[in-house]
Every structure is written in structure tokens, then in C-alpha cells.
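Request: Show me your protein:
***
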Amino acid sequence: MKGPEAPGGGATDPLRAAAETMRAVRDRCVWTQQIDHRDLVPYLVEESAELVDAVEEGSRSELREELGDLLWQVLFHAEIASRDPDDPFDIDDVARGLTEKMVRRHPHVFGDAVATTPEEVLVLWNAAKALEKTARTSVLDGVSERMPSLALAQKLLGRAAQVGVEAAEPGAPPTSEAELGETLLALAAAAREQGWDAERALRERLRILTAEIRTIEQVAGSGDSGATS
């Protein structure tokens, strides 16, 4: 089946073709026509998780495919937004806004600022971001409570440090659920101090545990097979 062509009849631009494909699906697919932004959230979460899996343990082809699936979610939301009767915007508006923001936040690339270390880049990034977010009144503004718990803990620890709040270091094993929460926060603080990703560290350890379980099951299964043969 032939895909959509770029405007003007020239060579097809893959991103434009993807956007036009999304538009056609929205126009002609009865299921897609019923979907709104909120309906898409579970799919966005799922596709994001699958992309993380592809990055951390998948193949190059899986990574390419999962990036495409996540891009489809962006195109889907933009197409829904383009039909809003009160405040419409489309994928071009999204891309334009992104480009403008990235140019603002990289004055060492697109302007006269100088940054020769990652730390200096971060200073410029945060300064530009602060100018954009003048309406924010708390360091917690913009932090999503829907982040995974460990990732949220590390994010909040960074914001807490900005106002002088420090978390305790890991101590004795917890004896209650409340103490467990304190211990987990302290471990997240230790991870942040070392520059580690607590969420990824746990995922990687769980993958090892999963492999161990499967190995034991395979051995047990082989034993059962031998006993009954």
C-alpha cells in the first residue's frame, strides 16, 4: 500500500508521511476516532516502558521499532489536539515550540555563551529554564507525582537540596513500613550522591533475579522430565 506523499508532490518526508498517516487513521478508523488524550495515557506509559526495555536489553531493531511506537503516541496526541474546537494545535506547532525551546536552552550552541564542561552546560540550561518558568512559585512545580517511586524520590531529593533539606543516610534495617520508607529514601539519596540511577539499578537487579528464577525452573523441569521418562 502506497503511503502519503509530501506536500508539493516531491520526495516523501518520512516524518511528514507519518503525520499524514496518523491523520488518515484518525479520519477513517472508528476506534481511533473515539480516543481522546486521557484514553491514550495507558498506551503512552506502556510504550515508554517498552522503549526503556529496548534501550537497556534490546536489539537495535527493537530500539528503532519502539522509538517509532513512542513517536506514534506523540503524533496521535497532536492529531487529537489539532481538532480541538477551542485551542487547536498540530504537530508542526509542537515541533516549532520544541525547536525554539532547545535553541533557548543551548545558548552555547546557538548563541554567544560559552560552556566547556557538563556542569557549565547545566548552569545555562537551568538559567534558561528559570526564565521560561517565571510563574512557578515552588521548587516542586513541574515534578510529576506519577513518576516511578524511586525516580520520583531522586527527583525530589534534588529539589529538596535546593532549599536546604537533606535526607538521612542508610542505617539499620527497618522494623516498620514507615522506617522502610525512610530507608528507601536514604538509598535513593545515596544513589543520587553517586550519580547512579536507582530505578535502573533495581530493574537490572530484578532482571538478574528473573534469570535466576527461570534457570531454577528449567532445572526443575528437566528433573521432572527425567523422573517421568
User: Anything to note?
Assistant: The chain has ten helices and no strands.
